[in-house]
Amino acid sequence: MKILAPIDGSRKSLQALRYAVNLAEKIDAQVVVLNVQIESDVTIVEPISWDAPVLKKRAEKVFSLAKQELEGSKVNVEYKMLQGDPSKEIIKYADGQKFDMVVIGAHGLTGIREFLLGSVANKVSRHSMVPVLIVK
Ligand SMILES: Nc1ncnc2c1ncn2[C@@H]1O[C@H](COP(=O)(O)OP(=O)(O)OP(=O)(O)O)[C@@H](O)[C@H]1O
Ligand SMILES: [Mg+2]
Questions:
Q1: How does DSSP assign 26-84, residue by residue?
Q2: Ligand 1 near 125 CB (within 6 A)
Q3: pTM score, whole prediction
Q4: What is the CATH number of the domain that holds 15?
Q5: How many domains does the chain have?
Q6: What's the pLDDT at 49?
Q7: Which domain holds residue 68?
């Protein structure tokens, strides 16, 4: 079994990742942690250099939070960075790589509680071919 855990570095996404890993431990599954970097986020800060190294560095920061969260876990965890639109990339990757499940947070970095779900959680749960588990 393969579980996809997309994270944006938010508290809620790390909570979802922990849920994914606890589940993976029980069913002997593998977990892939995915972070999607949005090019336009970087252009605001640094107009000319939204190149691969910059995006990679930003993803590494997010992954280091995940590694802290998962310290001591025995589950097989891999880390993957993609760039583009988060919901589109998550949906494409989950389907293309034949994951059995996506475990995603209900909210992310924006975290506006009035909405039932953030836009990424909403789009992934509606359009993914792969079953989606939303951690509230
Ligand atoms: N860039 C990303 N890369 C990987 N996973 C992401 C990314 N953005 C969001 N996610 C996943 O989606 C979950 C929900 O985040 P979402 O972005 O939908 O909520 P939000 O940030 O509160 O609202 P919005 O982005 O719509 O303003 C996160 O907990 C995380 O699991
Ligand atoms: Mg968001």
A1: HHT-EEEEEEEEPHHHHHHH-TT--SHHHHHHHHHHHHHHHHHHTTT--S-EEEEEEES
A2: no
A3: 0.93
A4: 3.40.50.620
A5: 1
A6: 52
A7: 2-135
